[in-house]
Amino acid sequence: SYKEAALQAAFYFDDAYKRNPEGALRVELLLEMGDFYRSLHDRNAGDSADGQIMADCLKRSTDALNEACTLDPTNWQPYLELGLSYEAAESYDQAENAFRRALENIPDDRPGLQSAALEGIGRCMFKRKEYDKACPILEQAIQKEPANHQAAVRLVLAGGERSEQASALAYLQNLFEEYALPSDGLSFQSEP
């Protein structure tokens, strides 16, 4: 079963960690541990019976990734993963800080990764309902990677929340045209 496989994987990670690998190998192990525990949380997030287990998974994830960031502070990957884990834990300030650290360390020749970090920052702002701050960040994400559709959709939603339906709809219309999708009748519905 899935739970048995997850327990075996957790045992493997704990055993490998106890062997105390050094350098890049340790950072790689911590990255894998962080991703594994966050994935375990995400897969079971709807299971309210395991609420404490899910919280423990996110704690293990953030602990492992924080250690990886400490061991290799110029590596963007642990910070990006840490941002995702804090975001899953709804710790949006910490997530935003981690995404910003990732962005600082991502090389200029990796615009797709820069876009992902910017999108993470924008998502955190959006989730805190800071739509005015989120929109320019999401626009930067799209400028870095025009194919970042998640940033584009979030930008449209933030524009709608800012009562800028006309510009949000125009942007959405452009997305639909780019992919030859029918866009008849696009409008924002106000909540009752």
Question: What would you say this structure looks like, in words?
Answer:
The structure is a single chain. This protein is mostly helical. Helix 1 packs antiparallel against helix 2 (23-44), helix 2 (23-44) runs parallel beside helix 4 (76-88) and helix 4 runs antiparallel to helix 5 (92-105). It is built from nine helices and no strands.
Which of globular, elongated, flat, extended, rod-shaped describes the shape? globular
Number of helices: 9
How many β strands by DSSP? 0
Topology pattern, helix = H, strand = E: HHHHHHHHH
Averaging pLDDT over every residue, what do you get? Answer: 84
Rg, rounded, reads 19 Å
Unreliable residue stretches: 188-192
Largest sheet: none
Structural class: mainly alpha
Helix content: over 70%
- In whole angstroms, the N-to-C terminal distance is 45 Å
The share of residues in extended strands comes to: under 5%
